[in-house]
Amino acid sequence: MEILTHTGTLWRWTGGTGGTWHFMTIDGEAGEALSATALMRRMEGLSRGFGSLKVLATIGDSAFRTSVFPSKSEGWMLPVKASVRKAEALGEGDAVTVVLEL
Question: Which Pfam families match (predicted)?
């Protein structure tokens, strides 16, 4: 099991149907580690849809299972659930530290 820690900014994306999602970008050393893991899994024939990786994410006292997705521009995108944002009093633009377990 690999454990990564990253601090990034929470940002909001609004889709064409009006749906809103909150993400943080995982870049830098943590993003490079995710990319290396994804490459290794691809080479082993274990890649998942969209190149995603399943993770256990912990922000503050909130732990949740989700997937991280490679960004088209840079790094990886971590969706942050509404229940986590509420429990941790987080909003768009806040700095967030996350621990990821792969």
Answer: DUF1905
Residue 77: CATH number of its domain: 2.40.30.100
Half-sphere exposure of 43 (CA within 13 A, CB side): 6
Question: Cα(82)–Cα(65) distance, rounded to whole angstroms?
Answer: 13
Model confidence, pTM: 0.88
Instruction: Note the pLDDT tens digit of each residue in 68-81.
Output: 999 988 899 999 99
Q: Which domain holds residue 38?
A: 3-101
pLDDT in tens, 10-28: 999 987 777 789 999 999 9
Q: Strand (E) positions, 1-102?
A: 3-14, 20-26, 53-59, 62-70, 76-79, 95-101
